[in-house]
C-alpha cells in the first residue's frame, strides 16, 4: 500500500522515494511529528481520501526505519485530532470529516477565514430583529438601559456544510442602517467596508458545551454532541465595543490552536 501511495506522493517528494530524503533525521523536530505531517500531506493532496485505510504501523515502521512506538505516536496524534479514526480489528482510516483548524490569535471573520482556506463560506440567517438586549450583552457593549441592539442569528456554512451557529448583537445607535440583507454574509465586511470603521481587537473566551435538540437539528448532528462555545466582544481602536457574538461550533469539525511563547 505504501509504495502505491509514494507513486502519487506530494510534490516535495516527487524526486525520490528514499527514506532519508523524506525526513530530516538531524532536525530538532521529532520523527513522530514528521511522520504525522507526511500523512497529513497525503490527505491534503488527495492521495488519501475520506474513508481510505492508511498504511499499517508495520509498513510505516519498515519503510521509514523508525520504531513502532514512533509510528504509533504519530498515528495517535492524528486520531486525537480527528483526522484519522481507528476501527478495532480493521485498521486506521482517514476520518470522513477533516477538522478546520483555527488559530486563536487571529481576528478574522468567518467568511475571511474560509476563503483563505480555499473553502466556500456561506450563511443562513435564522433571525434578524431589533430588540432590548440582556443585561450581559448590555454590559459588554456598554449600553444604557433603554438602548436597543440588532440580534442576528445565523448558521455558518463551509462548502455548504453547517458547522456553526452564531448569534451577534450590534448597537442600533452605531449601525442605524443595518438590514438583514447587509448583514449577510459577512458582518465584518459591512462594518469595515460600508461603515468605514476599523475593528482593532477583541476579547474572547472559549469553553465546552453540549448541543441542544434545536441546535442538533440545525447543525445536522446527533443530540448530545460536543460543541465549542466561543463568546467574543469586538472593539474599535478607541476602545468602543461594537459587537458581542456567541458562537457554537461543531467539535467534530473545528479545532482551535494557539502559539505560546515562553516568558
UniProtKB/TrEMBL annotation:
<dbReference type="InterPro" id="IPR000524">
    <property type="entry name" value="Tscrpt_reg_HTH_GntR"/>
</dbReference>
<dbReference type="InterPro" id="IPR036390">
    <property type="entry name" value="WH_DNA-bd_sf"/>
</dbReference>
<feature type="domain" description="HTH gntR-type">
    <location>
        <begin position="29"/>
        <end position="97"/>
    </location>
</feature>
<dbReference type="Pfam" id="PF00392">
    <property type="entry name" value="GntR"/>
</dbReference>
<dbReference type="InterPro" id="IPR011663">
    <property type="entry name" value="UTRA"/>
</dbReference>
<dbReference type="Pfam" id="PF07702">
    <property type="entry name" value="UTRA"/>
</dbReference>
<keyword id="KW-0805">Transcription regulation</keyword>
<dbReference type="InterPro" id="IPR050679">
    <property type="entry name" value="Bact_HTH_transcr_reg"/>
</dbReference>
<protein>
    <submittedName>
        <fullName>GntR family transcriptional regulator</fullName>
    </submittedName>
</protein>
<keyword id="KW-0804">Transcription</keyword>
<dbReference type="InterPro" id="IPR028978">
    <property type="entry name" value="Chorismate_lyase_/UTRA_dom_sf"/>
</dbReference>
<dbReference type="InterPro" id="IPR036388">
    <property type="entry name" value="WH-like_DNA-bd_sf"/>
</dbReference>
<keyword id="KW-0238">DNA-binding</keyword>
